[in-house]
Amino acid sequence: MRISNVMVAVLLAGHVLALASAISWACQLKSENSRLRQNQILLLRGEQARMERWVTKDGRNVMAIEALTLRIGELSRQGDSLLLVARSLGIRNRRLQEMARTVYRTQTVVRTMVHDSVVKIAPGRTDTLPCLSYRDPWLSFAGCLRADSFIGEIHARDTLDIVVHRIPRRFLFFRWGCKAVKMQAVCRNPHTQLTYMRYVRLVD
Q1: Cα–Cα distances in Å, from 203 out to 99, 150, 196?
Q2: Domain ranges of the chain
Q3: What is the tens place of the pLDDT at every residue in 88-111?
Q4: Which Pfam families does the entry mention (predicted)?
Q5: Bridge partners, residue 55, by sequence
Q6: What string of DSSP letters covers 90-122?
Q7: 3-class DSSP state of 187
Q8: Structure confidence at residue 64 as a pLDDT band (50, 70, 90)
Q9: If 0-12 CB within 10 Å is exposed, 13-18 middle and 19+ buried, where does residue 67 land?
Q10: What whole-number distance in Å separates Cα of residue 35 and Cα of residue 39?
């Protein structure tokens, strides 16, 4: 009688463990399926279509993109250069959590006066050359024209503010959970325009 009770208890415990394991596995599969489905939706839209662009009221350029959620193996199979950057910094792949790349260009129209300046060409030798200079809070340059060339220095300054936030799921007026994660970048330099953005979140 005792042996049969012990066997029943062992069988019952085995069934409970098997059921718990099956439920855990099903939850993992559901989560993985959701991740792959979200990635597929994003990738089918195309990279350029996923990048949202607009200008704020104060004239700053903004770009936003939803995150791709990838495994390290998936990212390395793509041959993504972000992994090469991490390797060059001495960061191991297993320590990576998120990676991003933002590309921008600075372009502006400059109007300035050309003036003659006495410039030292060599020790004990000077010459009068046409020179020009320009300065605003974001861009400055100064230099002189000599024969058919321009010799000078150009300095461009910018600050890129980056915010990462979650987008909740919606149904009517209800919001819950997390539908996606989005990264937004804002340039403080009004001459700068964001041209490309990539944001990857890494999972185990």
Answers
A1: 12, 51, 23
A2: 1-45, 46-107+158-203, 114-153
A3: 889 888 888 888 998 988 888 888
A4: DUF6549
A5: 61
A6: T--GGG--EEEEEEEEE-------EEEEEEEEE
A7: strand
A8: very high
A9: buried
A10: 6
